[in-house]
Amino acid sequence: MAFVGYHPPMASGRQAGQAPPAQKRWRVRIVAWLAVAGVFALDLLVPDGYAIPLLYLPILLLALDRNAPRLLELEVAAGATVGTLVGVSAGDETILRMVLVNRALAFFAVWTTAVGVAMYRVALARREQSTRALENLKAAIDQFAIFATTDVRGRITEVNDKFCEISKYPREQLIGQDHRILNSGYHSRAFMRELWRTIARGHVWRGEIRNRAADGSIYWVDTTIVPMLDERGKPWQYVSIRYDITERKKQEERLRDQAALAVLGQFAAVVAHEVRNPLAGIRNAVQLMAADLPPESDASDLADDIVARIDLLNTVVEDLLVYVRPRHLALSRVALGRLLMDLAASLRHDPMLQNMTILVESREHAIVEADADQLRLAFTNLLVNAGQAMQGRGQIRVTVEPTVDGCLVQVADRGPGISKEQSERLFEPFFTTKHRGTGLGLPTVRRIIDAHNGTVELVNRPDGGAVARVFLPRRQRAPKDSARVFHQERKIPHPSA
After folding, report:
1. Does a structural domain hold residue 75?
2. For residue range 446-470, what is the model confidence (pLDDT) as tens digits?
3. SS3 of 429, please?
4. CA nearest 57: which of 27, 28, 24, 81?
5. Pair 77, 183 in one domain
């Protein structure tokens, strides 16, 4: 079994954390022993009374060299001991006492230094081993976790590559900032206050946080923040380890949507039977009565208004049925450029879009495996929304770009853009900013694109307006029970707003 960050020893060559080659070890050993021999020769030549054995001490320091062999300090100390004892036999008896004192002090100094060097080498080896272990652990964490450190004020002091990757900020732009640069506005002030209160007290905080990347996209992280405490028990640094749980959150949201749709489907069945049929009868009755009224009378105008309101209510019911009724995808090869050009041509007859220009730019080979009817419904909703955002005037620019594994379609407008509050609820069923919208247009778009295993997002453009980005894979995976969309009960182009 192999572990991340572990490097097995090699027979040759020097790498970080490995012992030096034998050739370098022997070179240091030879230099040390030549120095010992030189001091011994000098001790024999110099008259007694001089503390020549103390010159062995600098030789012991050669053991501190990174290339020094193991136990070199003990070898030198042993050699120095022998040389010191031999030197005593060569001393003059008249000053023997002084010589013995000098030799004893030299003997003590040599072995004290040798033991000190040995202990230092052991401590240094352990520290290097601990450092390598920490480096290997950090390398392992960097492979799968999002890592960052901050000071006590919350300013970022270090981030790893995964932090930059998920946040889409360069490291230089993050260092010195606090985490408010990633604030999505989702969490309340009370939530963030409790987080800071917990870590400021020296306790570990765990939770899930929703952040906003540099490009405006949203991502979720499972976060653990650990305070680093000083000798007084006060935090001096915070270490945060995060894991990307965006996909898990999306799955949870899909499960909630499916549960809600099950209830909504039952409600829609009741509505279709109890509301839709009576509406048709009321509408026919009002039209029959209006036929007998004078054309310019107030009663005739009132009858027309009743019919218009019944039609609006019927549209709401039909939008609801389109949203909740499932249907398996009828897959075929779809040329997105041709589909969008045909759709743009048909939308010219829509009264709301007749004063607008829809420019479609598509490259060749923009072909995907999809349900053409469902894509028409989805892109009609996006184009109508763009036209409504521009008050029915201006130009909508649609681009289709093939990618390695699919196609990216962008629908750009020059409207007022999307507010922060709206961006949080764009795909929420029944949420609308329009006076007579049903709030089911964009949720329907998302359900269709999700059924095609694609993605859809609406973001603001840097130069004004908004852009809807739709990615569709080139080929569909094996069908799943959840890969369903809805039966289309009304003709294109008449989507809900």
Report:
1. yes
2. 888 988 888 888 888 888 888 999 9
3. coil
4. 81
5. no
Same domain, 112 and 131: yes
Q: What is the mean pLDDT of the chain?
A: 79
User: Are both 387 and 267 inside the same structural domain?
Assistant: no
Cβ neighbors of 479 (< 8 A, separation 6 or more) are 328, 329
Among the candidates 142, 171, 187, a domain finishes at: 142
Whether residue 3 is contained in a domain is answered as no
Handedness of CA 119, 124, 129, 134 (dihedral sign): positive
Which tens digit of pLDDT belongs to each residue from 5-19? Answer: 333 344 444 444 444
- Among 297, 324, 351, the domain-final residue is 324
CB contact at 8 A, 220 and 244: yes
Q: Are residues 233 and 88 in the same domain?
A: no
In-domain check, residue 432: yes
- 407 bridge partner residues: 402, 472
Task: Give per-residue pLDDT as tens, 127-138.
Answer: 888 888 888 877
Question: Residue 302 — φ and ψ, nearest 5°?
Answer: -65, -40
pLDDT tens across 38-69, in order? 887 887 777 666 667 778 788 888 887 777 88
What is the Cα–Cα distance from 398 to 379, expressed in whole angstroms?
A: 10
Taking Cα atoms as reference points, which of 485, 422, 425 lies closest to residue 451? 485
* 455 neighbors 391 (Cβ within 8 angstroms): no
Report how far residue 237's alpha carbon sits from residue 226's, in angstroms, rounded to the nearest whole number. 9
- Domain range for 403: 328-486
8 occurs within a structural domain: no
First to last CA, the chain: 58
Q: How far apart are CA 91 and CA 107, in angstroms?
A: 16
Distance of CA 365 to the CA centre of its chain: 32
Same domain, 86 and 53: yes
What does each C-alpha distance from 140 to 4, 134, 202, 251, 388 come to in angstroms?
Answer: 5, 10, 26, 28, 51
Q: Which range has highest mean pLDDT (92-101, 237-246, 320-329, 343-352)? A: 237-246
Number of domains in the chain: 4
Of 62-66, 293-297, 401-405, which has the strongest mean pLDDT? 401-405
